[in-house]
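Re: the request from the purification team.
They wanted to know what the chain is likely to look like in 3D before they choose a buffer screen. I agreed to run a prediction and write the result into the notebook, where they can find it.
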Amino acid sequence: MRLLYSGLPRTSGSAIWLCRGPMSAFERRLTTASMMLLLLCAGCGTRSIELPVVNATAANPLSIQDAVVAPAIDGMPYNTALSATGGTPGYQWAITTGSLPAGLALNPSSGSITGVASLTGTAKFNVLVSDHSDPVQTTSASISLSVVSPFALPQAALPAAEVGTSYSSTLPATGGTAPYNWILTSGALPPGLVLSASSGMISGVPTTAGTYPFAVTASDSSSPVQSKTTLVSIIVSVPLTAPNAQALSLPQAALPPGEIAFPYIYKMQVNGGIAPYHFALSGGRFPPAWRSMRLLVSSLEHRRKRTALPSRSL
């Protein structure tokens, strides 16, 4: 004797059947996709069999696995895939509200988003996925997809530095996906300066004069990662004055008048800088009647100090 029972359960719970035959001859199957039940028995004897009926939708709900997608890069090929879990595979995808960025399209069978984005910005849309269950399960998610400019390191001349003076300058980067990561790939920074890996800032107090060329590589947070390398240099010079010294200046003041046939002496007032000072006549001339007059110039060193030469009249 062979007994076949099949059907489409409508509610969860359990059912009990009497089977005439040894337990070894009993076969029970449950196909969750179609909720079809199969009961086979043969032979002799009577047995009571309990066959549970489960709610496949509640036990295996359909869901979108990850609603976060990688950004696209303007003008470059893009390929990412939406994914779902649960329900019955053979999913179908559709956009219900909003739209994809210009140049991109959704494959309804695979959930892949492909194409070449042609405009930067952020597009927001809702996506609906359905499975092959009976009844059909559906679920939706809100997704944002950004299109960013290609990652680039603009060429920029870094400002010069001075020995013993605090220095700070940030390397520029544009496009891609922040945050960026910076590393020194060749050459060396001036002694006393360091590169921040997270900000691209070069800072510190240089200790040695010279010209220091080096290469820096920066990468963004895109997937896949974009990387660029740039060559830069920093010139470190010896300061003309010691750090924190006041600026050199000659206060503006009218010189006292002189008298014919009388000796004339006037001491110039100097502010700031670092003594001793060096003086020189930079323009004009002395009064014609005082041709023997001369400007006393100190013979002391420090010829490289900054000069301030306001005009004077007699």
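For the purification team: The domain at 63-148 is CATH 2.60.40.10 (Immunoglobulin-like).
Please add any questions underneath this entry.
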